[in-house]
Amino acid sequence: MSTEAMKSNLSEAGSHLKQAASAAGESIKGAASAAGDELRLGKANTKAELADGALSGIAAAENIGAAAKEQMDVLMDKSRDMIDSAAELIRERPLTAFGIAFATGWAIAKLARMGSSSDTK
Known about the structure:
The protein is mostly helical. It has one domain. Helices cover 98% and strands 0% of the residues. It contains 2 helices and no strands. Helix 1 (2-92) crosses helix 2. The termini are far apart.
C-alpha cells in the first residue's frame, strides 16, 4: 500500500507541476501581450510628441521671422530719426556741421596714414 500511496502522490505532484507550467505559460503569454500593447501605446505617444514638437518648432521659426522684422522696423525708425536730427542740425548750424565733418575726415585720414605706415615697418 505504501507503493500505491507513493505512486498516487507522485502522480498528483506531476499533475500539479503540469498545471503550474500551464499557468506560467499563460502568464508569460499575457505578459508578452501586455508588453506589446504598452510598446504600441508608447510608440504612438512618442510619435504624437515628436509631431507636436515639430509643429512648435515651425511656429517658433515663423515667430523668429516676425520678431526680426519688428526689430528691423525699430532700427529703421531710429535711423530715420538720426538722419532727421542731423539734417536739422545742419540747417540750424551749417558752419558747425561743416567743421565737425572736416575734423572727422581729417582724424580718419590721420589714423589711416598711421596705420599704413606701421604696416610697412
